[in-house]
């Protein structure tokens, strides 16, 4: 029985051969941002496992460990060569993500009959990652908002009031408003949400509609630039950096646009006194995911002894 329509001798089967089939058949099923990220990670994996080409059945667990070490070392060396200060841990998170992608590709190779060898990633520990614990305080939010361009203000307010990921915020359109709700289909998880158009969100949507009155042509997207054109994620992130610096907040790792989603969830849980309210708004399938996502963001609120 043939496992593949175009069988290839095991000795000639390489990581790249399998990875290229993965790109053709699996990558298109993923979200655009995930596809872009996977392609960048594959470039790194090719640099190690395809120079020279590594026969699939000859890749062993020790090679995965070697890849992780090489990935961090090359990142640190590149930063030093550019005159930047390094801690020696740069590249660890990316190395972990690339190991996960390699593992998925290997499992596909087993499915497709290219190898019957066990996954070499099994038992190889990645680098320890510290969960992100950033919470943007209200005064910090207001300060960044004050120095932000109008497109960023709209994006910040939408991100905070809806609790959605940056890519989903920038995808929001007037066409998504129906029966008094803002309809959202999360790109990453495909979860569907209906957020009631009320309170501050209702006022925000009215403000955005008013701003767009004189735009010609008029875009249906909610977040547009001063000329009425749709704004991309990189543009919003760049605006956020500019506003953050103008506000005198110079810690790039502490203040990022993506942290508004965690702020929304944290504030929702505290206001409602129930983390399940945040779970629903964020679109998490189970409350443990929400707890893990929000853990240490602001610290547990407790009463004094007396």
UniProtKB/TrEMBL annotation:
Which keywords accompany this UniProt record? DNA recombination, DNA-binding
Which domain of life does the protein's organism represent?
A: Bacteria
**Which residues does UniProt call coiled coil?**
none
User: Does this UniProt record's set of keywords contain DNA-binding?
Assistant: yes
Q: Which GO terms describe its molecular function?
A: DNA binding
Biological process (GO) annotations held by this record are: DNA integration; DNA recombination
| UniProt keyword DNA-binding present | yes
Q: Which residues form the Tyr recombinase domain?
A: 129-306
Lineage, highest ranks first: Bacteria, Pseudomonadati, Pseudomonadota, Betaproteobacteria, Burkholderiales
What is a single Pfam family found in this protein's UniProt entry? Answer: Phage_integrase
Q: Identify the InterPro entries for this entry.
A: DNA_brk_join_enz, Integrase-like_cat_sf, Integrase_catalytic, Integrase_recombinase_N
What protein name is recorded for this chain? Integrase
